């Protein structure tokens, strides 16, 4: 029965990876573990904040959904994620990307949001 799904495919013998490839693979795995940990931590933080806000401010899940949609559409695209936006430097008035949180021209640091 297994052959129906596997197409009678037999795996070739495993070949050892060169040391450099193993190192890069280990680094990638470590990075993935770190990112997974960060995502889980942020999920926990988001849930706790939402429960606190719902309890203290008496807001509903639909209020949250509406705000999520508003925030999502700030960049003009409903894609379920935040996108970097242009920020005008208060010192030199030039525009930089919000992903840097620092003016690329004069070095002025921008105020970072608590979340985001």
Describe this structure in words.
With 116 residues, the protein is mainly alpha-helical. It has a two-stranded antiparallel ribbon with strand order 1-2. The protein folds into two domains: 20-77; 84-116. Residues 1-7 have low confidence and may be disordered. It starts with a helix and ends in a 19-residue tail after the last strand. A hairpin with a 6-residue loop joins strand 1 and strand 2 (95-97). It has helices at 2-6, 19-57, 61-72, and strands at residues 86-88, 95-97. The chain is built from three helices and two strands.
Topology readout:
Elements: H1 2-6, H2 19-57, H3 61-72, E1 86-88, E2 95-97
Antiparallel strand pairs: 1-2
What would the keywords be for this entry?
5% strand; 3 helices; 116 residues; extended; disordered N terminus; mainly alpha; 2 domains; two-stranded antiparallel sheet; single chain
Give a summary of the structure in a few sentences.
The chain has helices spanning about 1-5, 20-55, 60-70; strands spanning about 85-90, 95.
Determine the mean pLDDT: 82
Shape: extended
Question: Poorly predicted ranges (pLDDT <50, ≥5 residues)?
Answer: 1-7
**Helical residue percent?**
40-55%
Question: Number of DSSP strands?
Answer: 2
Supply Rg. 23 Å
Going across the major beta sheet, what is the strand order? 1-2
Sheet/helix structural class: mainly alpha
Q: Can you tell me the number of structural domains?
A: 2
Structure annotation, total helices? 3
How does the major sheet shape up? 2 strands, antiparallel
Helix and strand sequence? HHHEE
Taking the alpha carbons of the first and last residues, their distance comes to 50 Å
Please state roughly what percent of the residues sit in beta strands, choosing from under 5%, 5-15%, 15-25%, 25-35%, 35-45% or over 45%.
5-15%
